[in-house]
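Progress note, project year one: complex with adenosine-5'-triphosphate.
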Amino acid sequence: MSAELSQEEPSAGALTGGGPVLEVSGLEVHYGLRRRRRRALHGVSLSVAPGETVGLIGETGSGKSTLARTVLGLVRASAGSIVIGGQNVTAYSRRQWRGLRRSGVVQYVFQDPLRSLDPDLTIEASLTEPLLIRGTAADEAAARVRAYVSRMRLSEDLLDRLPGELSGGQRQRVAVARALVTEPRLVILDEPVSALDSANRVQILRILKELRADGTALVFISHDLGSVAGIADRIGVLYQGELVETGAARDVVNHPGHAYTRLLVNSAPTLRAAPADRAEREALRALLHA
Ligand SMILES: Nc1ncnc2c1ncn2[C@@H]1O[C@H](COP(=O)(O)OP(=O)(O)OP(=O)(O)O)[C@@H](O)[C@H]1O
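Model obtained:
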């Protein structure tokens, strides 16, 4: 653990209860003040079990990123509660949230990997840093980094490069490896494959599916039902700031209950029988049925 963390702040060891990894209840989030105050989330409740993958889908502006950012302590809730690893973190101070993020219990991957990677650090330094912060010995950290580089189908030759010297797909794989290398209990992935071409998208989804076996819970956010359907155990549908439907992935895809979900299913380019991009559609279907 970092020397900066005080005793009142959480450590990975302190947050290892047997209940849900994440429990969000009645979450309300507003942006702006007085007349400019706008509601972004209303009454959102969601529970994520250890090792479970929950997909969150919704159109632009539905509140997906707001939910991710609130669960990471980057946006403050106006009402409701957030419990991570059995610990009620709703009223945490900024410093406590920073401590929680640095503790490695919860990690995150954003759409743009350049946001999570320091442009001046080599890939090796970027991947090693979160382990060293947690007090992992240097030789063990180096071995763990190489293991994750291999799992992410990255070449070790990339380790001494800077993020700017990698392709978008390679960078995003590094960002995913960085989030997973501490073996967190919960990873929030906000549109992790949206900026990638279809080959990279399918490959990263396949790797994420393999990693579920490790027991890490994933919250996978996307506007694209097709990307989420292949790896999620459960899917939640956000519409205008409300969670209008949650259910087993297959049920939501095959028997959508809410009209908005039906619309999403019908317009998901990877699920409907459109002639375009057939290879990707088939690969995603195979993931769904694997
Ligand atoms: N910092 C902010 N200040 C004010 N309003 C915001 C802010 N961030 C988001 N919003 C508003 O909150 C609502 C939800 O935004 P959010 O970014 O969570 O949606 P989203 O589903 O992630 O959309 P996208 O798929 O486009 O990223 C939108 O109406 C948005 O305009």
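The first helix runs from residue 64 to 71.
Confidence is low (pLDDT under 50) at residues 1-16.
No further modelling is planned for this target in the current period.
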